[in-house]
Each structure stands twice: as structure tokens, then as C-alpha cells.
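fwd from M.: "can u put these together and see what the complex looks like"

so here's what she sent:
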Amino acid sequence: MENTELIIVEVFCAEYRVEPALIEELNEFGLIDFVQTNGQNYIHSDHLRQIEKIIQFHNELNINKEGIEVILDLLERINTANQHAKYLQDKLRLYE
Amino acid sequence: MEFIDYYKVLGITKSATDAEIKKAYRKLARKLHPDLNPDDKEAQAKFQQLNEANAVLSNAENRKKYDKYGKDWERGEEYEKYQQQNQGQQSRPYANSGQQSYGNYEGEDFSDFFSSMFGQSGGRQSQRSQGQYRGQDFNAQLQIDIKEASQTHKKELTVNGKNIRITIPAGIEDQQTIKIKGFGSDGQNNGPKGDLYITFSIVNNTDFKRVGNDLYLNYELDLYTAVLGGEITVSDFTNAKLKLKVVAGTQIGTKIRLKGKGFPIYKKEGEFGDLYVTYQIKIPTTLTDKEKELFQELAQISKKN
């Protein structure tokens, strides 16, 4: 069988041992996005890495969805700041 | 192989209760979790030790063994005897059902100390079932030189015994990571494969300095051209010759921008950054008597003006 790009939400929940209610809640909150086709909810395989991360934050670190949203936003900002720092470091090297 | 003080790792005393261990572990896990510390190898190493510490100290049997033989683990005959007697149990050091362990990160491994004392296979059992559906991601580092980075080119790599051919787009940045979809390990139960993440390290042995898509070059201008003006030829990054007019009275540090002569812009074919040429004026250090005389004459004229 071929690996598919879209994973049925129920399959995802069974494989990752998470409650469907949690995934539904995360979707409603906007932390994850379902792909809807023919009335069926799917998760795109490209989003799996991010969803795994969200579930780890939730299940392992006991962080609620509001906290996860803040963390993801801050991680994004750190990433941008790191890129900016790299740019400035390169620029500083011009004067070395 | 170094002894690891798991109590120290958790920041607790030897008399810590199970609740204190759990609390210390949770607190540090929230601080050191790899997802919260991306690209921080130190945090990842500490997190690994933290998981080990928790695996050992939150399990009564392991804790007892660690407390008894910890520092002398390599020598003790008694330890050997203990090991033989408890072989069956050793393969399952994580049998404690109430135990929680955060792990299953790429590259995660157990320290030699831990493996030697508790066995590597047992450690694996602590990894959570999550994430096994989608295959594990692989990370790789690839070093290329700046000339290679300036051209879209193909490269063959061997990752986990498999040869793969990748296309590296021109303009890739130093420390940039690209994702090669589906080149991680296989998923389970028809789950998707993991991905391969390649981080590039770009070595620059040229006279050009790169900042983003722009290139910077210092050009040594002779004194006379700087004073009187003239024309010079500069080689750009592709070695193409560029003729530049130098205006009379050019100062040290004057910067000329050559639009579109910089580095290729990543994934934007035909688009380039700029090249900045900064003039350094070369002052003559050895003068002939005649030259010295003429400079003195110039100095006198300058004073009069």
C-alpha cells in the first residue's frame, strides 16, 4: 500500500494514541488545520511534524492550547531573530 | 566512560522522595525539551541526561542499584554478580508502569554509562509510541564551498546507507536547512516516511564577503587613480571583468554599488543581489628620490593654498 498525503483524523488519533476530542479541540482553536474532503476530516502529512510537536507540548509538558500557541509564536520569533542575528554577524565580519 | 550523577542532573538530594524526583524532572523537562530548544545541542544533551536520570531514579529497582554501585559500577565484583542474578530484569529497566519519559528524538542515544549499567535495549523501551506512525526524520550536515553555492547543482549523498541525488538551488545560505521529503525512515502501519533535513555549511575562501544576497569586495586603488580619477577593471564573483570609472578625489572607504552583480537569490532564477566594491587607497611606502621631491613640492603647494 502506498503512503498517502492525507491521513484520516481517526487513523491519526489511533496511531498517536490521542483522544479525537483533543484533536478536534486543537482544530477549533486553530492550532491545527483539518483538510475536509467529502465530509471527512483529514490531516495533511506535511503538518504531521508540527502536530506531533503540539501533542508533545500538550501531553508531555502539560501545556494548554493557549500556552502552546504562545510557545509556537515565540519559537517563530526566535527563529526570525536568529536569522537576523546571523545577518548582522555576517555584516559585522565586513569590518573585521 | 564517565560516571553521571543523576541526582545532580535533577538538582535533588539523595534522599529525594518520588514526588520530588517527579517534580524536578517535570520542571527541567519543560526547560530542556528539544522542541523548545531547537538547534541547541547543549540543551539536547542535558535533556538526554535528564531522561536517563528520571529513568533510573523514578524506578525503585534501578535507583537501588544506582545508589549501591553507581560510582563503582565499572569495578565491583558484586555488581557483576548482581548483573548475572538479575539478567531477566535488566532487559526491562523501565518496567515501572507509572513512569513517564519524554524522548524519541532523533539522534537521541543513551550515555555509555547508562547503557553499561542498565542496557541499551532497555532504554529504547522508554520511547513513547507517538511518532512511530510517521517515520523518523534524519538530519545531515553538508559542507559546500561558496562557488558551489552560487550555482544550482546536483549532489549525491549517502544517508543511512542509501544513495540519494539532490538538487541544491543556487543562493543557498550558510546554515540554511532544506527538507528532502520522504527520505527519513519508513513509517509504520502505512504511515508516511520521515523527512531528511540537510543543513548547509558554506565555506568561503574567496575575497568576496557575503551578506545575504549581497557580496562585498575590497579593492585596493592606487593613490594616483584615487587623486586624479581613471578607470579600473574589477573581477566579479563569476570572474567576469567589470570596467569601473573612478572619479577624481575618491576617498578611502568609498563604496560603489553594482546592481545585480551579487549572489544569486535562492529559488529566484535570474535574480541576483548586489556587489559592493569598497575602495582602499594604497599609499606608496617606498619612494624614489624624484617621487619624494615631487611629493614635497605638492605638500608645499598644498600649504600655500
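replying to her w this: The domain at 6-93 of chain A is CATH 1.10.1660.10 (Multidrug-efflux Transporter Regulator; Chain: A; Domain 2).
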